[in-house]
Specification:
Structural class: mainly alpha
Largest sheet: none
Shape: globular
Number of strands: 0
Order of helices and strands: HHHHHHHHHHHHHHHH
Distance between the termini: 11 Å
Number of helices: 16
Helix content: over 70%
Radius of gyration: 22 Å
Length: 469
């Protein structure tokens, strides 16, 4: 594949990165500590928005599989959803309300944002197995998607800390500007990616699908979700994304109240994360070639959680330097770099593994269902991420962190409870994800053998639905 196409396709993931950063890092603290909603109510609203969205995702995936236009199956969705997504994102960060937002108000806007983002991300990710059948090129496409997704999120993180929220994370001013800039970035990324891929993929699908019906859609979705390889992958992904949702929602709380980061530390924080993503980008292809996607995902999950929890274990044991000191912050960043490198490797590998399930399903049924499988993957990610965010809210309430608490003034017992609950849950989740990823049944050899069988079947039956990019 040409490098230009990889870059253009990957750039579309900037929109997902902007959304993921906002939802996971800032939304809980904004609605809880700034606007005054209870943490458990905010996390419940965000979890329900994820679950509602997750149940709609398979329908969106099935609809995109059945879209039949001269612009292909996926492009019309990208063009149509870009502007509504930008508008909904702006409203989320500028609630036109007096007083504290209600649970239902937050839920409604959060659902709108997630549905619009799904209408962009599900068709975009479903393009990967259509663009290439090659095992390693699919990893390349997901490398670029991960790189640009993280770049979008980290750009917003850097601007939040250094521009929009420079006066402090607990100041109301700046969140509206944060939302408006992010909306513009989402709009540009989605449209630029769609336009850049237009010539390559804007053509009638090889086979016209039957008309959409709810009965047929549910039947096809159920059939796709029964694929053994997908069920094993989903089990590992559930644990991994619950952990990611928990960690993302906890990020600002950990750095403000546990590690007591000052303004200067938040300057370097996005840079450390970006360096770890570059490390993933450079290394993950070689890891997949040497060990395969499943083994790389499993081992990275184990190594990542060990590295991530080491500082917190030493902190609870009393062997960590004084929180807020230069030494403490430097050591946190070192562990963060390596832990995030491993964790993102796990998540990227799991997403890339979905592409090989498409051909396994095709061999069994004679039908390709990229949209259904990638929407299923998003279903898993969103439900699991929502559970993680909900767990974060529960931990904060159970630990007893008061609203509006100033860093450095929270009782040590409260901090210890936060760290202990968070650490134990994170360890259990990482071990569970590694267990299931290690049991994923499709290797590179299996995939290549399956492609050969499909090609042979297509040659023997010219009317076959087997298609190649």
């Amino acid at each position: 594949m040409p490098l230009r196409l990889k870059l253009v396709h990957g750039f579309g993931a900037v929109a997902f990165g902007v959304k993921d950063n906002g939802f996971s890092v800032f939304l809980l603290i904004f609605y809880n500590q700034v606007l005054g909603m209870e943490a458990s109510l905010v996390s419940l609203a965000l979890m329900l928005a994820l679950v509602i969205d997750a149940f709609i995702d398979p329908m969106l995936g099935n609809l995109s599989d059945r879209t039949y236009t001269r612009w292909g199956r996926r492009l019309p969705w990208l063009y149509a959803a870009a502007l509504p997504l930008a508008i909904a994102w702006t409203v989320l960060w500028s609630p036109a309300l007096d007083g504290v937002p209600t649970f239902w108000q937050l839920l409604a806007v959060a659902v709108a944002v997630r549905l619009c983002l799904s209408a962009v991300e599900v068709p975009s990710a479903a393009l990967v197995p259509e663009l290439t059948l090659d095992y390693d090129e699919r990893t390349d496409l997901f490398r670029y998607r991960a790189l640009f997704g993280w770049m979008g999120g980290l750009l917003m993180l850097l601007l939040a800390y250094q521009v929009f929220l420079k006066g402090g994370l607990l100041q109301a001013e700046g969140y509206a500007a944060f939302g408006l800039f992010g909306a513009g970035l989402m709009l540009v990324a989605t449209l630029f990616s769609a336009i850049g891929q237009h010539r390559r993929i804007a053509h009638l699908p090889a086979v016209k699908p039957p008309p959409f019906s709810l009965k047929t859609a549910f039947s096809e979705i159920r059939e796709a979700f029964a694929e053994r390889a997908f069920l094993i992958l989903a089990a590992g992904a559930v644990a991994a994304y619950v952990g990611q949702g928990l960690t993302f929602a906890f990020t600002n709380y950990l750095y403000l109240y546990v590690w007591q980061f000052g303004t200067g530390a938040f300057v370097y924080y996005p840079l450390v994360l970006f360096a770890s993503i570059v490390a993933v980008f450079v290394s993950v292809g070689a890891m997949h070639r040497r060990w395969g996607k499943a083994r790389a995902a499993a081992w990275a999950a184990i190594v990542g959680v060990i590295l991530w929890l080491t500082p917190y274990t030493l902190f609870l044991a009393g062997f960590w330097p004084e929180a807020g000191s230069t030494l403490s912050t430097t050591l946190v960043f070192i562990f963060l770099f390596f832990a995030n490198w491993m964790t993102v490797t796990t998540l990227l590998s799991s997403s890339s593994m979905v592409a090989e399930i498409v051909e396994a399903f095709q061999q069994r049924t004679g039908r390709r269902a990229e949209g259904s499988f990638y929407s299923g993957n998003w279903f898993v990610q969103k439900c699991a991420g929502g559970v993680g965010i909900f767990l974060a809210g529960l931990i904060l309430d159970v630990a007893g962190l008061p609203a509006g608490a100033e860093p450095g003034s929270v009782a040590p017992a409260v901090i210890d409870r936060m760290v202990l609950f968070y650490g134990v849950i994170s360890l259990v989740l990482a071990m569970a994800s590694a267990f299931w990823f290690a049991r994923f049944p499709i290797t590179r050899a299996d995939h290549e053998e399956r492609l050969s069988a499909l090609e042979a079947a297509a040659r023997g039956n010219p009317a076959s639905t087997v298609t190649t990019p």
